[in-house]
Amino acid sequence: VSLRTSDPVELLAAARAGDRRALARLLTLVEDSGAAAREVAALVHPLGGSARTVGITGAPGAGKSTLTSALVDRVRRDDEDVAVLAIDPTSPFTGGAILGDRVRMGDHALDEGVFIRSMATRGHLGGLSVAAPAAVRVLDAVGWPWVLLETVGVGQVEVEVAGEADTTVVVLNPGWGDAVQASKAGLMEIADVFVVNKADRPGASEARRDIEGMLSLAGHGHARVDPSAEEVDPVAPWRPPIVETVALDGTGVDELWQAVRAHGRWAAQTGELDRRRARRTARELERIVAVRLLAMATELGEGATFAALRADVDARRLDPWSAADRLLDGFGPGRPAAG
Ligand SMILES: Nc1nc2c(ncn2[C@@H]2O[C@H](COP(=O)(O)OP(=O)(O)OP(=O)(O)O)[C@@H](O)[C@H]2O)c(=O)[nH]1
Ligand SMILES: [Mg+2]
Predict the structure, then answer these.
(1) Residues 17, 32: Cα–Cα separation, whole Å
(2) Does the beta carbon of 11 lie inside 6 Å of ligand 1?
(3) What is the 188 CA–ligand 1 centroid distance (Å)?
(4) Entry pTM
């Protein structure tokens, strides 16, 4: 297969045969979200479903990339393959953090069992919330059994993307208030496993106590699934374990990986994994429909352009609901009902 091909069918065949450049090109097509992205989505969808996804999120600089790199080492010790999708929140023009991630992930550059990709959040329609799941699906279809998804835990979309993994790891640091910040950012709700990274610094046990306190407030009982048990009680609630790590030297990373795998077993055995995936599908479908409806409404012109209607709303000549009616009127009698 010529590497210059941009035919999704050829690219997918090559990628499934292990061609990494073909995989990279498929991901670029998905990221560009053009017509080819839809073709890729249609091709890969029936092939997916076996990858386990792990979201890794937390405040900027919490050590997510260092930890992800250490997790990659850990996964490789079991001789399992692992792909990393690092969602980069920074402007595609600076690329600073992408470079940083490349340096940190550089140790794995020659490892055939590791695939690392940074994805910039572009301004296109639907953006990250549509492109990230599509990229994960490509990695899944190509046969990567583990997909680690690093996103910075600020901003609703980033938190949402991390929270839609099969297992979500929230990375905090020692230091007063980090758990409070995490709570405000909506990270407490999505955490399946907590990490107190930079545990070489003072305050790790206080951070742990803060998280414990938050969990109890949030109604998590003390019942706890034994992370080392192979079989789980099908009705036992999952109380997110808290793992202390020093990502720089790998301390605690083994325990973290145990916790991630334990959550995966628990989720699979209790049916939570299926429920979570079904919710994820529903939300993805909703997003795509919303994005497409908006695109259609925006494109409908002839006196009801988006810009003109917005000006009318701005000037209080029209209320927003009536403006939306006018946009959607263009869809004809079957248009979506108001409210
Ligand atoms: N002391 C200490 N420093 C750490 C540890 N883990 C990471 N760091 C340092 O923290 C800084 C940020 O680490 P990154 O892995 O880039 O953090 P990140 O969360 O990926 O950062 P962004 O992607 O930019 O949000 C780097 O200078 C790391 O070397 C740790 O366990 N202990
Ligand atoms: Mg990072």
Answers:
(1) 24
(2) no
(3) 20
(4) 0.87
